[in-house]
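Q: what sequence does this backbone want?
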């Protein structure tokens, strides 16, 4: 037998065996699928049979209860002992109601005479009930020789517009005349009894006569009121229990199981379509098919593996060569470079990965090549400028380290790669050297470190790295005596840029600011981003003299100011941004980095309060001011709780001398400091958000005063103006709170005037229009305070549903002094006149100012000339004295 013949025969045996296994698997799968199908059909048959038996019992019980109810009317009403004219309709109807309540399915029961007229009924209509029986049903009930329960065809009730069935039997009166007891049952109620809550997939249930007339079905058939189903259900008895009978409703191949019930040749039929019965089986069939396919695939795979094994066995004469090939394959599959040296330090074997990691060895390395030559090729490639003597020294040092078998070490090469080198001695005195490329690992470590210590947006050191460097710089400063400095930067109006042009543009600005900051400092200095628009510049080793260090820090800060004031290009558009810079010196003594940052931050906020775009050094006095500010905030919180605020009212007059209203102005009745003007605490309240509850208190108190004035003819005409802060107005529930205050206090809305600043209106015009519009529908009036100080007055004025403009006192103060202010006031008055808006001038202190305003059309005035802010008692006294003066003597 030749070598080629044996494998051919073995292949035939393998494929024959595989075919036998495949045939067996297919046969078993087919048997399983068939048995599962028969089991699914049998299960559906059992379900249908059990269901019909249960439905028969349930329906018989329900119909028997109806039958008993109808039959008991004779005894209930005493019909057999009474004449028709003796029957009292009201009494009989009352008794029928009590009896009908015992059967929840019955909508009503009634007793009808031979003409169909109701003699009594459980329905609230009583004997006046109009019973609409199907045609001929009454006659068929009366024709029965023996009183028997009769069931009508389904009809639509005129009262409820739903399908109903009527159940009736005749009863005899004392004069042998017949009356009919009738019960109306909704088809839906009988359907619930019929189905019994059973959940069988695809189940169709019918109640029908032997002739095929359908009385009710589940699911309900809406096309015809009482259709006749074909074939009649009696014809199915000859077919036996088979899966080819037509479903009673859809006609599709099904299993139909039916049973007669007690009454009038009625049948219950349950149909389970073949498709529904086999739905679960199909999933089993598919699973069996998939499993069979997997087994067949495994058989073929096993056959292929067996054939491969045969092929390898037939090549036994190549075992040595195959072993070497396997070793070579293992070496080539290594992710590390492999180099094997013999006891004489010559190259014995290497893999291709070695030449990938050390590409300069491609075409250079050869078998039995001295390892020294490999090192010489390496140093020549990476450091070509070294002299021959320096190269030899480098190679000798490398070979000397190799003798001591050091721990794995890393070598960085000029091409940017980092290679980890591991050397292990072999038993015969040789050496195994592995080269593992860890460049990606080192890059990942660098990225992790960058994420931990650097801001991902600007690539500047973050707060964590800054604090570490600050601690080192402070310690070094204490040792050397050199002062450093800390500059805390915040970009002015950065939030406005973010809100108007988006965060992407804001991020673009932050990156450009970071680049400019790095050009302003030395290499040894640190530029860091704390977050948001806050940056910190740490200047190290400025000088041993404090004054000179401060001067150098100021020069750097001024350089930063100049750099950051140059316009930026953001998304193709020019943008001007300015910084506020706070500075503090560090050194001389051991200080906390947190305290230094706090000092620089305080200095920066000092710049903010003085107008921004400047540099300010920390002054200990600032800390005192901030502490006082914090104490003031705490006192304000206490003042709200202790009800220390009061309202003063500054009167507002018409040109003819009438007082038309007053502006409500908050005052703080401090228990120790006395009456505190708002200029001393409103700013702190706005920054701490206490302005919101304070503003709500002012609004409520002013409305309570309006309500108190309503009962007095002298004051009920007065309007009250209330200033609304931006924070208060931007609250989501501002409109609801104003409406609630008006409702609770009973103040008339048209006497309340809310004053909004021009800057508030401009902040979000759409939101302003929406809120003003909602309150205007309630009658509230609106005035723009400090009008003329904004930048877009004419642009929004026509859009806002305002009532009044208030000329800012800065313009009124300079009337007749500065020509431009005269022109502005005249323009405002003319514009308001064209827009049909009232104008009131505040800050009127001289007759000349009042005369100028009156000449140009202003008719409402407020100011010290006419009246100062005063408590409500003094305001009322002022009104009374004015009334006394003007009263006829």
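A:
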């Amino acid at each position: 037998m030749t070598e080629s013949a044996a494998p051919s025969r073995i292949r035939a045996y393998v494929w024959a065996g595989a075919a036998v296994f495949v045939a067996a698997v297919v046969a078993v799968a087919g048997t399983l699928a068939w048995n599962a199908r028969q089991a699914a059909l049998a299960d559906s048959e059992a379900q249908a049979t059990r269901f019909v038996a249960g439905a028969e019992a349930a329906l018989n019980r329900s119909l028997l209860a109806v039958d008993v109810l109808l039959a008991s009317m004779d005894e209930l009403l005493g019909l057999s002992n009474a004449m028709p004219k003796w029957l009292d309709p009201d009494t009989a109807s009352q008794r029928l109601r009590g009896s009908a309540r015992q059967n929840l399915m019955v909508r009503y029961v009634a007793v009808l005479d031979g003409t169909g007229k109701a003699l009594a009924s459980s329905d609230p209509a009583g004997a006046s009930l109009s019973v609409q029986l199907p045609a001929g049903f009454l006659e068929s009930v009366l024709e029965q020789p023996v009183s028997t329960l009769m069931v009508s065809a389904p009809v639509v009730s005129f009262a409820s517009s739903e399908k109903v069935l009527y159940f009736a039997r005749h009863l005899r009166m004392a004069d042998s005349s017949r009356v009919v007891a009738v019960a109306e049952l909704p088809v839906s109620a009988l359907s619930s009894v019929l189905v019994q809550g059973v959940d069988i997939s695809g189940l169709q249930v019918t109640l029908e006569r032997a002739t095929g007339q359908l009385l009710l079905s589940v699911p309900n058939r809406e096309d015809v009121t009482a259709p006749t189903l074909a074939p009649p259900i009696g014809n199915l008895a000859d077919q036996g229990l088979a899966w080819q009978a037509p479903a009673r409703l859809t006609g599709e191949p099904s299993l139909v199981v039916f049973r007669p019930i007690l009454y009038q040749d009625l049948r219950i039929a349950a149909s389970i379509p073949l498709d529904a019965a086999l739905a679960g089986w199909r999933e089993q069939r598919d699973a069996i098919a998939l499993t069979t396919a997997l087994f067949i695939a495994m058989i073929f795979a096993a056959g292929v593996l067996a054939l491969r094994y045969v092929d390898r066995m037939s090549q036994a004469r190549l075992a040595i060569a195959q072993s070497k090939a396997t070793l070579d394959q293992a070496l080539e599959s290594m992710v590390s470079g492999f180099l094997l040296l013999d006891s004489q330090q010559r190259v014995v074997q290497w893999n291709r990965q070695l030449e990938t990691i050390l590409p300069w060895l491609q075409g250079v390395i050869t078998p039995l090549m001295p390892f020294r030559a490999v090192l010489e090729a390496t140093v020549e490639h990476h450091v070509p400028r070294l002299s021959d003597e320096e190269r030899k020294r480098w190679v000798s040092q490398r070979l000397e380290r190799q003798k001591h078998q050091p721990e794995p070490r890393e070598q960085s090469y000029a091409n940017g790669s980092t290679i980890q080198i591991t050397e292990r001695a072999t038993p015969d005195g040789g050496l195994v050297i592995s080269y593992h490329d860890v460049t990606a690992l080192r890059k990942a470590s660098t990225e992790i470190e960058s994420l931990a210590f650097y801001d991902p947006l600007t690539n500047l050191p973050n707060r964590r790295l800054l604090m570490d460097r600050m601690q080192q710089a402070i310690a070094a400063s204490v040792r050397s005596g050199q002062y450093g400095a800390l500059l805390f930067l915040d970009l002015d109006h950065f939030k406005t840029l973010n809100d108007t042009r988006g965060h992407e543009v804001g991020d673009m600005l932050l990156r450009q600011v970071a680049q400019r900051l790095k050009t302003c400092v030395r290499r040894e200095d640190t530029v860091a981003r704390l977050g948001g628009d806050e940056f910190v510049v740490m200047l190290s080793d400025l000088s041993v003299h404090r004054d000179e260090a401060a001067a150098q820090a100021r020069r750097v800060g001024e350089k930063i100011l100049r750099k950051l004031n140059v316009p930026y290009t953001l998304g193709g558009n020019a943008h001007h941004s300015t910084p506020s810079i706070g500075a503090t010196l560090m050194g001389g003594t051991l200080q906390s980095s947190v305290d230094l940052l706090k000092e620089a931050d305080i200095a920066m906020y000092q710049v903010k309060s003085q107008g921004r775009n400047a540099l300010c050094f920390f002054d200990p006095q600032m800390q005192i001011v901030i502490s006082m500010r914090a104490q003031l905030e705490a006192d304000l919180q206490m003042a709200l709780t202790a009800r220390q605020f009061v309202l003063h009212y500054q009167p507002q007059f018409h040109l003819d001398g009438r007082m038309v209203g007053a502006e409500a102005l908050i005052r703080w009745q401090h228990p120790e400091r006395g009456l505190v003007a708002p200029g001393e605490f409103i700013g702190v309240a706005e920054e701490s958000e206490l302005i919101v509850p304070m503003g709500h208190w002012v609004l409520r108190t002013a409305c309570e005063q309006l309500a108190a004035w309503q009962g007095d003819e002298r004051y009920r005409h007065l309007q009250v103006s209330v200033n609304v802060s931006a924070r208060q107005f931007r609250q989501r529930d501002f409109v609801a709170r104003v409406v609630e205050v008006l409702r609770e206090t009973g103040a008339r809305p048209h006497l309340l005037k809310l004053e909004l600043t021009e800057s508030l209106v401009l902040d979000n015009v759409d939101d302003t229009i929406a809120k003003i519009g909602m309150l205007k529908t309630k009658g509230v009036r609106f005035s723009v305070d400090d009008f003329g100080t904004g930048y877009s007055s004419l642009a929004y004025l026509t859009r806002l549903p305002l009532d009044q403009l208030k000329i800012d006192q800065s313009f009124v103060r300079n009337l007749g002094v500065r020509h431009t202010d005269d022109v502005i006031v005249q323009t405002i008055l003319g514009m308001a006149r064209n827009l049909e808006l009232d104008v009131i001038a505040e800050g009127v202190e001289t007759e000349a100012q009042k005369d100028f305003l009156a000449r140009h059309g202003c008719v409402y005035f407020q100011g010290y000339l006419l009246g100062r802010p005063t408590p409500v008692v003094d305001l009322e006294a002022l009104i009374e004295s004015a009334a006394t003066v003007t009263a006829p003597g």
